[in-house]
């Protein structure tokens, strides 16, 4: 029996193949998923990891044993799986471990319409059922066994994304795309086909062993190749995707990273324009002050949330928001079933850049207004004690306000910082922003001294 507490996380399943997650266990998860969702049909996709096809097929078999028809859509990005779930109105399962090393695999689950599945929305029930079946064995198959068929949705996915962004009038652009040997190598050619783009591909070969670099563009080490190639090619911009291609990171014509907050603000302005200058925009509490400012300037209503896709998606559904963005380069769209798609954000950037004559660095300057530290992680022996020490240092000051929506946020007239504990590692995560780079550095160093004392 596998200890499921080690692999069933807050929002997905993730573990080492085959020690923690193998075909037999995937089949049990498929059966439990069909039972908990009470689905008559599901859709299943997978990434390029060597173990993914067999795990996806086993999951489909398990669902079929419980009477659910399973459509295997094969190789896909996570947002392509969300598209299939949304457009077909079926629960879905995506086999991927995103940017984790090659020996890992996992399952991201959603209900019909790409609605998220997490601990409080079905994942705990699925885990409990799998644990029971591990102990007692599988029940007799359902009276009607479901079918397992294959289906290709890539062309429909690409067409849907293209229908949401007007790219008909853009000027020719040269764009370097780093797929990181992940699923963008599969989806980008279809999505960008026929546009006036000179696409320079990097690491498009699907290879779940990640031979060139980790497929996590938020780590600066993993975009060095892209930055160098953009400059060498004289390209207009560069795009980097993570392993399952649901996140997109942007660099400008100089190879400089464009902060995800600036992309959030840019896309928010465009989505508000698409909706007549009205609408709610969701942003997490670590995004820049620029985001709510730009939203308000364009007639929208900014709403601040906790960090994490479940909180963003829940708030989008509650408020009817048209768009949401996170500092981690996750971008959520009402017109994409409130799910996240980095590819759609990339199309917005291409449309914005191609719709005016200037370089990307000039275009994004309007959305990147403050000095930010980026996320700084500190390993600590006692998270609670160090966080308490930071709070104690600021709570008596009259020139700041404190809130605890997610960790500790301290806000002054010309700076703010947020300190959050990692749920999975002995880390405290610090983000600082200020109107002036020197002030940002001073606040950053002051707080780090307290954390690391």
UniProtKB/TrEMBL annotation:
This is Phosphomannomutase/phosphoglucomutase. The keyword Chloroplast does not apply. It comes from Streptomyces polyrhachis. Residues 375-449 form the Alpha-D-phosphohexomutase C-terminal domain. Belongs to the phosphohexose mutase family. Keywords: Isomerase, Magnesium, Metal-binding, Phosphoprotein. Coiled coil: none annotated. The keyword Cytoplasm does not apply. Its cofactor is Mg(2+). It comes from the Bacteria. Residues 6-133, 156-255, 265-370 form the Alpha-D-phosphohexomutase alpha/beta/alpha domain.
